[in-house]
Amino acid sequence: MASSQAKTHQHEFVIQATPVKRLCKTHNTITVNGQYPGPTLEVNNGDTLIVKVTNKARYNATIHWHGVRQMRTGWADGPEFVTQCPIQPGRSYTYRFTIQGQEGTLWWHAHSSWLRATVYGALIVRPKEGDSYPFTKPKRETPILLGEWWDANPIDVVRQATRTGAAPNVSDAYTINGQPGDLYNCSNKDTVIVPIASGETNLLRVINSALNQALFFTVANHKLTVVGADASYTKPFTTTVLMLGPGQTTDVLINGDQPPARYYVAARAYASAPGAPFDNTTTTAILEYKSAPCAGKNCASSKPVMPTLPAFNDTATVTAFSNSFRSLRKVEVPTEIDENLFFTIGLGLKQCPKHLNKTRRCQGPNGTRFTASMNNVSFVLPSKISILQAYEQGIPGVFTTDFPANPPLKFDYTGNVSRSLWQPAPGTKGYKLKFGSRVQVVLQDTNIFSPENHPIHLHGYDFYIIADGFGNFNPKTDTAKFNLVDPPLRNTVAVPVNGWAVIRFVADNPGAWLLHCHLDVHIGWGLAMLFLVDNGVGQLQSIEPPPADLPLC
């Protein structure tokens, strides 16, 4: 019955430069269809999307449908040189995929260089027609996209950092739905208004689409009830503050139960790396009661109520928040494990190569270049063909399958790490998984150069987060913390600063799937690896053939 109602939605995305004025200055910003943020796509669980993307910008581009499982449709996943060659300027590519068994808030973004700074939008998946939410039906729904704005061309920012080997410049503003808000220059006349009426229950779909920054989010004087995250429902819990790593989404109910007035919605950095520079500004929107004494235009005189946000390094609040997540019902977590993997994640420093000009090209700490790795392998993208094409067509020399299942060297990961371990080896390495294998990955942050809360995202899969903690993961004692009853199902896990997280999934989706840090500065430095999942038996356990219009490199 339900499948007969599934629809196909066709959209056209044109990636193009558009004049966008923020912080008093106009930039030629890369957008989709001239909109910043890009268009919101709305579908129902079971629907199919066909999106023709035409690239009229001067940079290569791709679009990733963040959190979409892409069952058997890995060619539509979008990370450049992983599942496709990029769409070159003047070319187009049509993404075709079905969203099955997912409900809630996802999003889409460019997956090429730093284009996703401005090329992103919401992807809302409602229940199948006739089904309902497992919570009070909200009166209205508002997507809240948290972004990061540079008063510069973001591509120039990353290119300069790649040249110098130093960390890239931090952003100049955070944004809510593309607008910085009242606390920035030249911004208050465009501050986003989030409407509410007394007695209403509304749904805010909060998405962290910032490029490089985990963010706290709050609404003055209002409680937020979390009901979903990463397009999976959660047991409802009430909080005053959210923390989202880049890539994560959180659905919250908000009640219009306060005196009718105007209240700031605000977001600012959770900066977990000690001493690292960060953008210490605050973006705001306004929650405005329709019956507020000053609704509409004559409000300049009454300032909205300002919330208090946690301190930028308030890890205790983050821990309490992330430990509140549970799946709505009992779930089937894999208990027998076929692949027991342990991945270190973190930064590194590369000694200045002999052929480089040290003063110009090695401006990292003490004349080095920044790098990053998993299990001491710093991931390098190919440039002549995508990994998925090479994998499916058996083309040699593009990648190897010897990504280590464990760190090549055991050490005190979160203690004082010997300098001899700070320089990883570059490589394009994948780890092979048999179809249907049950996988556990321990993700262990390291104290190399600086520890940090890393948002780790897996393409093509959701996974259960069965535990996390601080210090070094101890398989003897930490297994006692495993939640195998109702752990949350996510596509991006915020691995605690100087700590660890354990995830489990079943490898039931064949293809080449990136596992990477969603801080774009870290992807560029190599904080990534690949799972290569074999086809199973028969057509339904095999990846579809590549589409005819798959871009050429």
Structure summary:
Strand 14 and strand 15 (232-239) form a beta hairpin. The protein contains five helices and 32 strands.
Separation, N- and C-terminal Cα atoms: 43 Å
Kindly state the mean pLDDT as a whole number? 96
* Helix and strand composition category: mainly beta
Count the strands? 32
Strand content: 35-45%
Shape: globular
List the strand order in the largest sheet: 10-9-12-17-14-15
Tally the helices. 5
Extract low-pLDDT stretches: none
Largest sheet: 6 strands, mixed
Characterization of the model:
The chain has a six-stranded mixed sheet, with no helix packed on it. A six-stranded mixed sheet has the order 21-20-25-30-27-28. Strands 11-19-18-13-16 form a five-stranded mixed sheet. It has 553 residues and is mostly beta strands. The protein has five helices and 32 strands. β22, α4 and β23 form a beta-alpha-beta unit. The longest helix is centred in the N-terminal third of the chain and has 11 residues.
